[in-house]
Each structure stands twice: as C-alpha cells, then as structure tokens.
Amino acid sequence: MNYMHNAGENFKRILDELNRQAQLKEDFVVPANQIRMRDDGHFTFQTLFTNEAASPATEWAENQMYQKLELPARFMRRCPSYLRATNFNYFTERLPADEEWLLRTYRSRANQLGHMIRGALSKDYSRFDDEQFLGMIESMIGTEEDHRISYWYRDERGMHLRIVFPDLTRNIGRTLEGRPDVHMVGVHLSNSEVGARSVTIQPMVYRLVCSNGLMRWTNDGEVFKQRHIHLREREMYSRVAEAFTAAVKAGDDMLERALAAKEVKVENPLDFIKTLAKDKKYSQSMTDTITSTYMAEPGDSLFYVMQAMTRAAQTLQGDARVELEQDAGELLAKVAV
C-alpha cells in the first residue's frame, strides 16, 4: 500500500489511485484459533482452500490481534520475536473453535510473501472502503473549477480528505502582515477500512492565508458519523448526499460564527492557552507551538486563539491534526451568533 498525504492533488487522481489499490485488496474470514505467528513476526492462517503463505502485518493490524487476545501491545513488542510468537500462539490455540476473524489484506506483488494483513476485525464488520465513499462524493463536488483539495492524508489506519469551495469565501479582516484574511467553506471526509474510525462527514472552514482548517465541533447531530456495522451501501448513498449538502451549509454558518468570535475578547490569551492545554492534556511541546503561533495573530480575541490552534495543527498529520482542529471548533461552538 502506498501512503498518501497533503494537498496538490485533484479528486480524480486520488480516486483513480484508490480504485487501482482496490484491485489488490482481499479479505478472509478465518478460524481465529488457527492463526499462527512465526518467530520472524509473520503470520500464517488457514483459508477455505489452502494455508496462506507467511504474511506480514501492519502495526495497526498486529495491535488489533493483541487486543482481541487481551495481550498488552507494548509488552508484546518488547518481547524477543520467538517469545512474542510463543505468547501469541498459546492464546490463539485456546480460542473457541467457532470464533472467526475478518482479516483485511493486500495481495503482495511479490510471490515470496503472502498477503499484507492490514486489519483484524470481527466477522460482523461492515466493509465500506475509501473508493466506495469517494465514488459517492464524486458526483457531489462539481467540476475541478468548483472545488479544491486542501488536505489529503492516508495511512495504515485511515484517510482524511478536505474539499473546499472557492465560491463560498469571506474576508474576515486582515492578518498581522496586512493581507486579507480570507476564509473558505469546506467539508472534511474521514474513513477507516480497518476499524480505526467511523465514516465521517464534517463541516469546516479553511483559512487561505496559512492553509489551516477549523473543524466543526458539535454534539447535536450535525456531524455525520456512521460506524462500520449494519451498514448497507445502497442506503449509504442518500445518507452521504444529504450529509454532504448539510455540511456545506453548516460550513457557511461557521463563517458567521467565526466573525462573531472576533468580538469575544480574551483577557490574557497566553494564560488562556496554558489553561486550555492543561485541560486537554496537550504536551509541553504542543503548548509551546500554540503559544508561538498565537504570536503571529493580530488580536486578543477568541478568534485568534482558535487560529493559533489550527496553525499549530499543521505540525501534525491524520487523526492528531483533526483532533486539534476539532478542539478549536469546540471553542467556536460556544460563540453566540
């Protein structure tokens, strides 16, 4: 699997690459008590027709198997390889005969190894893959002139794709350097094919001057989330289409709330950031980064504290970046409009 990240892509290229990779996917429902780890850390398992060749696993998939066996992943990784295999095999051999795991894999292009195991899940897991998700979105975003890809990240755990719409922009004052502070409405899409997260469609606002995003945080149902269980693709299209339209509208509403946040004064922004960081349990390094990025903002309102957080989020990738942007959005949600 090729991991992908950052902007500079267009939607069709992303979808074409996902469809190409989809040709290498293969899933197996296997008896869990017949999965074995070899001393070299690779796995063997029995399929319906044959014993699979020794297969490597991603760190995520290996941790999922440890979790199913109630084995601490950190301890297992500290063990010598032969002892790790001994522990793993001891517990898999004792699983109930009727327990089955869904192993999500990529076929190896080389014949020396078996499939790359990328996920170990319940056999009841509902598969809804990235190419299916973005295939639905393709008909909703218009032409290349109608949208831009401002963030694209995919790794062994999942994917994040951020689509923004140039027609939905607003100037919210000026930066410290005197440039127009232009914000653009967007939608953030997330998914995991291996059980790391739900299918998610989230409203957002994208700040052009520093290429950062403000994610909508809400607990009132406006963020679409669908777990990978009891999920039927035919039902998903209408739900995704409705959620995508609602997210664009909610992003437009966020611009109004962001403008109102400029009027919410923060008495001592640096102390506010320290208190927030302590509450959210940020590392000292991240606290320092947010403080540093705040110094590039031209005011002492809540708006600029949020922007400092989203600037700091650019030092992160994937889920970690989105979580910090959502924390900024949590502040926005408290602003009255």
TrEMBL record:
Source superkingdom: Bacteria
Pfam families named in the record: DUF932
Name of the molecule in the record: DUF932 domain-containing protein
